[in-house]
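Sequence only, no structure available. Ideas?
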Amino acid sequence: MQNRSRFPLSLVLAFMFIAGVSLPTAASRTHLVQPGDTVFRIAQWYGACPISITAHNQLTQADYIIPGQILFIPEPETLADEKLYTVQNNETLFTIAHKLQTDLHWLRRRNNLASEQIYAGQWLKVPSAAAPTTSGSGKSYVWNIPDLIARHPGKVFLHGATHRKQVALTFDDGPDTEYTPRILDLLAQYGVKATFFLKGANIPGQEWVVTRIVREGHLVANHSYSHPDFRELTAEQIVAEVAKTEGLVKKISGRKTALLRPPYGEMTTEGLDQLVAAGYTMVNWSVDSKDWRADQADQILNNILSQVKPGSIILMHSAGGNGQDLTPTVAVLADLITSLQAMGYEIVPLTDILPVEAYKPEA
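Reply:
I predicted one. C-alpha cells follow.
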C-alpha cells in the first residue's frame, strides 16, 4: 500500500480563502499533486472517478495538473447496496473482505480493480449494512437476485461478457411518441444498435414506433404490460403480464420476445420458474444511469462513465410516466456515445455480450 502526501484540510482551506479561490461544495478530502501525478492515477488512488475530479476542480484540461496544485476529491457515487469504506494503514483487499464478510470478487468488480493493490486513504465501495426495508405486504425485503442466478444459471444476467470492450445500451418503458423517436434518431445518426424493453400498455396506438425500432435493427424485449412490482404478484399474474406484451409485439414484428426485464428489476422464484419454462431469460443491468430522476445531462453522463466497464449493461429510459421529463436523456445520448467510443468501447445489442437469443424460435 502507498500513502500520498496531503496538506491538512485547515491549511488548504485557509490558503484558498486568502487566494480568493472558490471552494467546491461536497468535497471531503484534498490531494496535493506530486511530480508524475495524473488525474487518472489520483482517481485510482482514491477510488474516485476521473471525470468527477475534473469537473469538481473546474479543470479545463483533464490531463494538465502541476506539482503543488491542490485537488478536491469528491466521494464516489454508491448504489443502494453499497457504502464507502476508507482503507487504513497496512490493510489489504483480503483483510478488508474478511473484516466485512464479503468476497474479493465482489470488491474487485464493484471498485473496477485490475489488481489487489490498494492504498491507505483510498475509498472502496463495500456492501451496505442498511437495515432491511419492508414491502407493501409488511415482509422484510431481501435482494433475491443472487439466489435466482444460482437457481437458473444462464437465465438471469446483470452484466455481459467481460473479455471484450463492449457495452449494451438498454432503454426501458417505451414506446412513446415524444422521446423514443428522438432517441432512435440519435442512434441512427451514430450507427448504434440498442435494446428496447417495452411496456405493453404503451404499445396500442403507437405501434409505428415499435415497427421503427425493429426496422432500424434494434432488439425488442419485454418489460411487462402494466409495470407492476412482480414481487407483489402471483406467478400466474406475472406470466399473464409478460404474455400480454409478448402478444402485442408478435402482432407487429412477427416474433415472440425471449428477453425480459421485470419492472424495478424484481422477480419471485415461482414467477421466474414459470417464465424460464416458457423460454424467457431475465436481464437486469449493471450500470444505472438514473436518468429518470436527473435534472442535467452531465449527471447522467457521470453516473454511467463512473461505473462502466467491459460487459456493462446500461439502464436508460425511452419513455416516462405522466409529467416525467426525459429531455436530459435525449440531450446526453450523443455525448455518451462519443465518450464511450473514445474510451475504446463498442456499443452493441444485448445478444452480442450475452449467450442468449432475443426472440423465441419460430414454430
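Residues 145-353 form a domain with the TIM Barrel fold (CATH 3.20.20.370).
Hope that gets you unstuck.
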